[in-house]
Amino acid sequence: MKPQHRNFSLTESREESQNHVNPLPRAVLRSNAFLLLDGEWRFAVDADDRGLSEGWHLGHAYDSTAHWPGSVEEHMAHAKDAPGASWHDKVVVWYEREFTTPKRSRADTHSLFQITFGACGYETRVWLNGRLLNTIEGEEAHYGEYTSFSYELSDDLLQPVNRLTVRIADTMDADIPRGKQESHVYKRGGIWYQTYTGAVRSVWLEMVERNRLRSRVGVFTETEDNLVRFNVTTRIHDPGEYTLRLQVFDRRATHRRATNRRAAHRDSETPLASSDYPLRLEAGQKLQRVVLELPDARKWSPKRPHLYRLVGQLIDSTGHTAQIEAHFGLRRIETRGRHIYLNDKPVYLDSILYQPGTATYDEMQRHFLAMKRLGCNIVRVHIAGVDPRIYNLADEMGLMLWVEVPSPHSSNLRSRENHFAELQRMLALIETHPSVVIWSLYNEDWGAQDIATNPETRRYIVDTYHYMKIHHPQFLVVDNDGWQHVSCEGRLKSDLLTAHLYTPDPDRWRALLDRLTAGELHGVAAYPLVVGDPYFYRGQVPVVVSEWGGFGFADYGGPTDADARTERIRLFKEELRKRRIAGDVYTQATNIEDERNGLIDPQTGELSVPEGLLASNGG
Q1: Is the full-model pTM beyond 0.70?
Q2: Is residue 21 predicted with pLDDT exceeding 70?
Q3: d(CA 362, CA 420)
Q4: Residue 464: helix, strand or coil by DSSP?
């Protein structure tokens, strides 16, 4: 297969100081060649949703073209006979293009072709030469728009020139995870944004092994007795005996020794740790936990973001090897009383609220570098999915991340099922990153509006919190950020007691902070801080002011002049550090639609305030 682009080695694709950048929106790398299918596609708006019944997947006369990746809204704005960039209630669009089947050796019986969508949705159906494809998970329709999904292409599906057809549907349904995109419940304006859906990330064709490790690696980042725990997922077409081999290399040493950045150079390296695991594998997909001893393991932290390179190989009985590569770091995040500890040392969270909106990958890179210059050691990525390469960047920069499940906008059984499914999809793809230290399940009870009155809503949140602590104990978990945390028998089902406090007045600010740290749960935030069973705060969990400021946005008030805003931020930050508070999150990084309160230029990444302003030392 002759690739259109080279899939760079892990070192080249992950190192920000290099000119080479991994062109695919994924964190785990393969050595296989790939063909990007981005570019011009034929495009049509299916305003009456007739395409399925009329068989558009069998053939259709498209009047417009669109560039993939790009949003449905952008594509509709430029399409012929389309209603414009906005849509109401429901939208259905179709995309189609051809691609030539790459050549491969007839003797190659170990491989097959696979198509991967970096992210697309909310509902996506895909046909190849008129035949409906099922995802690897067996779905005729993939649901979700924040994570990747793949289709294996058997030889009987392929022709010399292939026609790839994609149908994307989305609605204003408040039961699906929407984040801050408008819905039937929350209309655009103020803190709610225009929809941004559809073909939002790259799509590519690649050759993968029939029997392989999937691009999903989980690392339990805490070490005990120098043991590192890995979760890998096998994908098998030919049942039999296999050997799983894991090798760990020092990534920085790899950079120092590599002179030409070729994979061949790395083959001669001596791993820091290596182990083989014999497995009898049946056809299908299987999750496997293994443990590897890594002597004298070094920890990852914002000041010293030490990373290791993991090489995972699945070897069949003939010796054929399928390989993936990833990086990982080891760190321990925990709470003790009022404090948060990273690697057994107390850490204060200097954070900022980041809403990527429609930012490109290049723009997001500039935003992250700017947030580091502001003095942040953690970024709260606000109820949105981002390009997986951003997690890689945070790992390398030493920037911790607080991530959140994009929330539905209504509270019922279906919305909770969709919420948990989205959580599962996100965990599968970003579990390996040491930078991800905190997860929020909900924010300001969006999607859990009846949290104070409905025991079923609280039970779901409690069960999900327990699920995270059992299966993903390397993370701190916040149940409902901002207010209305859940108490069950007097125990908070959140690792942090968070509060959203907005006021531009310094005296009011001091009073709110005093009441918060004194343990007052009512009249501090917009709603009570705790609901459910009676709860008495006596310093048993850390307090974090997880939103404040927002100076410049009309709803929040405060100075709009750059110099005055700088001084107000500095004053408010000083008051935070005078009290027994474990962290804070300033609102926000960039301007988005009506929210004109950003500290960073959305396009250039330039700061409108002094560097270091959000650091605990005041810059």
Answers
A1: yes
A2: no
A3: 30
A4: helix
